[in-house]
Structures are given as structure tokens and as C-alpha cells.
Amino acid sequence: MKKVEAIIKPFKLDDVREALAEIGITGMTVTEVKGFGRQKGHTELYRGAEYNVDFLPKVRLDIVLSDDQVERCLDTIVKVAQSGKIGDGKIFVTDVERVIRIRTGEENEDAI
Question: O-UMP-tyrosine-modified residues are where (predicted)?
């Protein structure tokens, strides 16, 4: 099993969620996050004063999948979330040792 963490632009969330549902991936956790990489924030004007916005709003998707679903998931996220501009985000894939569904006690693949 793998955990896919995708950090994307907030306005891409609905499109990514719908595209993942089309390939059979429906379970995920979504968190509003802030951060920056090469994009390094931007300058805004507020009441006549300029100030730097260092942390930009992003959305993080956490998805736990069986190994055979990972590549389709990654391909879908990249295809849908990519605009070709700086700040499109990143995807991290890590191993998951164990999953337990609290309600039933089911484990691993059965718990996903």
C-alpha cells in the first residue's frame, strides 16, 4: 500500500476529485494548507501599504491506495492539476505499513 500526498492549487480541487472518482478513487482527506517553494509568495497592496504574502494557499490531498492503483492516480493528478505555471504543486508517495478501519477492525487492503 502507498500513501499519495498531493499539494495542488485550490481551484483545481474539484477537477482533480472528479477525475479521481472516474478512475475509482473516492476516499481521500483534504486539508487547506499554506506554503511556498520556488513561487516564493507575492506582494499585495492593502489600504495603500505594500506587504509580502510569503505563504500561498494550497490544498493537500492524502490518499491511501493499493500498489496497483498508484500509477493511474499519479497520472490523473498530474494531468488535471497541471497548468504549466509555477506553483502547480508536488506529489509525494510513501509506503504504508498498516491500515486499520476503526469501526470494524478490518486491516490493510480491506480497510481502504
Answer: 51
Across the chain, mean pLDDT equals: 90
Measured CA to CA, the distance from residue 51 to residue 41 in angstroms comes to 11
* CB under 8 A, 24+ apart: contacts of 20-24: 20/63, 20/73, 20/76, 20/77, 23/72, 23/73, 23/76, 24/69
Ranges of each domain in the chain = 2-111
Q: Which of 26, 38, 35 is nearest to 85 (CA)?
A: 38
Q: Nearest to residue 8, comparing CAs of 77, 94, 54, 93? A: 77
> How many residues would you count in the chain?
112
Region of 48 on the Ramachandran plot (φ > 0 left; ψ -120 to 50 alpha; else beta): left
HSE (side-chain half, CA atoms, 13 Å) at 56: 19
- CATH architecture of the domain formed by 2-111: 2-Layer Sandwich (3.30)
Q: What is the pTM of this model?
A: 0.83
Cα 112 from chain centre: 17
